[in-house]
Design goal:
mainly alpha, globular
Length: 362
Amino acid sequence: MNWTKGKRAGKIILAGGCCGLLLLMPEKAAEGVREGIRLSLETVIPALFPFMVLSGMLIGGRGKGVERLLALPGQTAGAVLLGLIGGYPAGTMAAAGLVREGRISKEAGGRILCTGFLASPAFCSGIGRYLFGSGRIGLALWGCQLLAAILTGVICGRIFPPCPEKISARTSAPPAPFGDRFVGSVLGGIRGMAVVCGFTVLFSAIRSYLWMIPGGRYLLPFLEVSVGCISAKGLPFWKAVATVTLCCSLGGVSVWMQNAAFLRGSGIGMREFFLSRCIHLPLSLLITFGAEKCFHLSSWVSVSAFAAGIRVRPSEGNAAASVFLLAACTILLIGEQRLCYNKAAKQVSRTLPSIASQNSIR
């Protein structure tokens, strides 16, 4: 009882403190909101929206690789791959959609998050251009994260219990027509972007107040990935690289809340996901250190941009975004082709016996 009262009192004190900050220093909140809106328009929406639309359409693709490598059902192949190349919410939305349609179990959906939780290459390219004046460094860091994610999935597939693959036919819903799914995916992508941008703006406002606290900048990587990465501006090269790696591996409280919002009602838990971050983060740092030793990433830095600073623009990094958008579209088309082929085969198998029976009667 006392614990419940203490929690309630803590919430009241926290809410009162936030209201006091807003009343005493509203200009800080306004500055953070403006920065969050700029970040959403220039970086978050161009990098994530196409993949969030695709995540709602990616149903039906299978792959033997995830069964052998990650110990996941074959139906999860498209969701895992989309999570690796499309950014954090895309894989989560695809996993939740597969579970809600009864195509995979909730255990398999939770395991998708262990591997398919990665910053998009377009986002990493933009951060590399902003921090180091080189999009190649951002893509190299994304490659290190990608390798660490695959290794994390392999390890999780060996230490976590196996996922049940078959779902009862009564709970598995037939796939909707392509046109209906496309409209639903666009609407779902718009709603998803509203969630992502809302959290980005909120934590950008919180960032403005954290800068006033001694040592507050060290909390930023744990709050929001975009804000945390931007806070590395001006740090020495290796500290900046470590900060970006930390932010992209953990995702931050903001991305965790976004995941929880997208997973509501699906029954997917996040316990295994949080355990997987304890594997992914040290692997990412180790692989990034090895990449520096092998490829000398620090030599790719644009010295003038690294010293003076440049801003991320919507037109910058479009090549990387276009390449990976085409890759995601290929995944979608392959999944659709297989789905249509399976539908046609089933239709033929149902039609031929009826034709044969009619001929025998005649």
